[in-house]
Specification:
It contains 23 helices and 27 strands. It is an alpha/beta fold and 669 residues long. It folds into 3 domains: 5-337 and 351-357, Aldolase class I (TIM Barrel), CATH 3.20.20; 389-480 and 627-667, NAD(P)-binding Rossmann-like Domain (Rossmann fold, 3-Layer(aba) Sandwich); 494-623, FAD/NAD(P)-binding domain. α6 runs parallel beside α9 and α16 (397-408) runs parallel beside α23. GO terms for molecular function: FMN binding; iron-sulfur cluster binding; metal ion binding; oxidoreductase activity. In the N-terminal section; belongs to the NADH:flavin oxidoreductase/NADH oxidase family. Residues 389-629 form the FAD/NAD(P)-binding domain.
């Protein structure tokens, strides 16, 4: 997509007021539902409240809570349940606290169906049919007619509770492979009674839920239904059925449709960084053509210009992203007040959000690029009692966050970076196809540090003697590639991953990547993608039938793992995507290979079948990282020294840990 300067500066469609049923909203930027891992935990309730309060102050026209289970078997760990009287106080208090700061909030009514984990609920999962879930590895109990009627009434009574407590609307979860979506899909609904078979039978429970809710709350209480626009599951609900379902939901009394995409079991990425921005927005557009109620859209809508484009094309009426609000609590305010350059954009890494949500047991959600997320009450935005002069050594992700956090607390900060550019490992990561969003993070830091008057000294190899006038030093010098002790590693055809990603070396034709962790997989993808012509060249070749210009460079790649595993250290929600992307004929994966010697002709090593040579004319080392040392111990007796990220510990390092440690160090000043 391309966007005009007028769209980027004005965002006129996003600014327009709108309505969902009787609910008047000041603009078109909503916050979608997401579990935070803080729900149903009384001891951290204030953290939950503070999270929502900040997003309300940040301009969200309407926020949708994480799913609130209508029945205990449809819930799970860290989830409110409407049948648990102990949760009533917290659900009622939450809406009142949000209203006190001027926010509006909808409660999402939720039932996991066969996606419920029995070890979390203490009871079996229930579904339309007893079909095993690839997600939970469990087989659910097939619901009886009594079970179905009990569930319908649970949705209705839950909606009435939400109305009595003062919620501004409700959303019924009928997407992402959860219970109501399971009834709609022929993959998971093999019933022979009135709740199965034809589309009319499969959508019956959803329509009865909507009608039962209407009987309880009346015609004027706003009701949003989150329906699946595309299951991304072969053999599931087809497009014609989806459109018919949307029309029937409108007739049953729904005020707006929030369009979900994909199931947890789907083999199509839906929210990861490899998904292009707004990739599924035309799915919502097709549904909008057949109904007369507002359409909400979310997947990979992470910037205001993308959102503006969707609205200007008439594809949807509101945007309701979730994770962009983790990255920046002021997503709407910044989008609507021409502060785009100060917007901390979600990079769709999944590392501190979905990887936490999907953990067993679930962990509290945070955000890689915004470590304060989920801990707002623990780290209030207030100036430090005493203004200090702080030196930050290193301009990678940890150093950038340390400088930002310290300056935001009123400290005078000087950031030293030995390279000519800020960014460190993020600048390398941004060169990997599918990770270009990291450039957004670098853009954000460059602007916010300027706004906070941080002095940035580039191309500066700082010496400890220059730091004697500072009150504290944060060492964020990061890491450098680990060079393994293999004979021949000094040969000229052996290079490191930064040399490849920065274009310092001319690539060979037969490449061997040693190391299959996250870096090794990233480098391999870079090598595969850069061998192919850019997408615009391929489009040009196809349009004018000049196929010769779209032929990829002939390049073979061998990816070598010492163990029998690969793609280790990558989060659960993205590992499968990486493995699938690297399943290509031009890539050879070799496992259980112990390197013995690097030779001019390749890598000699031990395999279970004996010693062999892997031929290559270039060997790329992705064999881990080591701490980039910076000696300031001479100052330690006089000045507090904080080491963060790779400078503290290079083992099992990731950006989430590095930026969190930097943030915490800045708050400890």
């Amino acid at each position: 997509m391309s966007y005009s300067a007028e769209q980027i500066n004005e965002f006129s469609n996003l600014k327009n007021p709108g309505k969902i049923g009787t609910l008047h909203l000041p603009h078109r930027v909503l916050m979608g539902s997401m579990h935070l891992g803080l729900e149903a935990e009384p001891e951290v309730f204030q953290r939950l409240v503070a999270f929502y309060e900040e997003r309300a102050k940040g301009g969200a026209a309407l926020m949708i809570t994480g799913g609130v289970a209508v029945l205990p078997e449809g819930g799970g760990d860290h989830m409110f349940c409407l049948t648990d009287s102990e949760h009533d106080f917290f659900l009622a208090e939450l809406v009142q606290r949000i209203h006190q700061v001027g926010g509006k909030v909808a409660m999402q009514l939720f039932h996991s169906g066969r996606y419920a984990f029995s070890k979390e609920t203490g009871m079996p999962s229930y579904a339309p049919s007893a079909i095993a879930s690839n997600w939970t590895r469990e087989t659910p109990v097939e619901m009886s007619i009594d079970d179905i009627q009990r569930t319908i009434q649970a949705f209705a009574s839950g909606a009435l509770k939400a109305k009595k407590w003062g919620y501004d609307a409700i959303e019924v979860m009928g997407s992402e492979g959860y219970l109501l979506n399971e009834f709609l899909s022929p993959l998971t609904n093999h019933r022979k009674d009135e709740y199965g078979g034809s589309l009319a039978g499969r959508m019956r429970i959803s329509l009865e839920v909507v009608r039962a809710i209407r009987e309880q709350v009346g015609e004027n209480f706003p009701l949003i239904f989150r329906m699946s626009g595309l299951d991304c599951m072969p053999g599931s609900t087809n497009p014609d059925e989806t459109l018919e379902f949307a029309k029937c939901l409108e007739m049953a009394g729904v005020d707006a449709l929030n369009i979900g995409i994909g199931w947890h079991e789907s083999q199509v990425p839906t929210v990861a960084a490899v998904v292009p921005r707004a990739a599924f927005s035309t799915v919502a557009a097709s549904i909008k053509e057949v109904v007369n109620i507002p359409i909400l859209v979310a997947n990979r809508v992470n910037t205001p210009e993308v959102a503006e484009h969707i609205l200007s094309q008439g594809w949807a009426d509101f945007i309701a992203p979730a994770r962009p609000w983790l990255a920046d609590a002021e997503f709407a305010n910044k989008a609507l007040s021409q502060q785009r350059q100060l917007l901390n954009v979600c990079v769709a890494c999944n590392q501190a959000c979905l990887d936490h949500t999907m953990a067993q047991p679930p962990q509290p959600v945070s955000c890689m690029v915004n470590p304060r997320t989920g801990a707002e009450s623990l780290y209030p935005i207030i100036f430090a009692q005493k203004k200090k002069k702080i030196a930050v050594i290193g301009g990678g992700p940890a150093g950038l966050e340390a400088a930002r956090a310290a300056a935001s607390r009123g400290h005078q900060v000087v950031l030293f970076e030995r390279q000519a550019q800020l960014g460190g490992q993020f600048r390398l990561a941004a060169r990997v196809p599918g990770k270009e969003e990291f450039y957004e993070t670098l853009r954000y830091f460059e602007h916010v540090l300027q706004q906070l008057h941080v002095e940035v000294r580039l191309s500066h190899n700082v010496h400890a003697s220059e730091l004697t006038s500072f009150d504290a030093v944060i060492v964020a010098t990061g890491v450098h590639p680990r060079i393994p002790s293999i004979p021949g590693v000094e040969l000229p055809h052996v290079v490191t991953y930064p040399e490849v990603l920065t274009g310092q070396v001319i690539l060979g034709k037969r490449l061997l990547v040693l190391g299959t962790g996250g870096i090794g997989c990233d480098v391999t993808k870079y090598l595969l993608e850069t061998a192919a012509p850019p997408a615009e060249v391929s489009r040009f070749a196809k349009q004018y039938d000049v196929t010769e210009v779209s032929v990829p460079v002939q390049r073979t790649i061998t990816l070598v793992s010492r163990s029998d595993k690969w793609a280790t250290g990558i989060g659960k929600t993205t590992r499968w995507i990486v493995r699938r992307e690297l399943n290509r004929p031009e890539l050879k994966l070799v496992k259980q290979f112990q390197p013995l010697e690097i030779r001019e002709t390749g890598l000699w090593g031990q395999t279970p079948e004996g010693e062999k040579l892997l031929e290559a004319d270039q060997i790329i080392l992705c064999t881990g990282q080591e701490t980039s040392s910076f000696d300031v111990e001479v100052l330690a007796k006089r000045i507090p020294i904080f080491r963060v990220g790779g400078a503290k510990d290079a083992s099992q390092l990731n950006a989430v840990r590095a930026m969190r440690e930097a943030f915490e160090a800045a708050y400890a000043l």
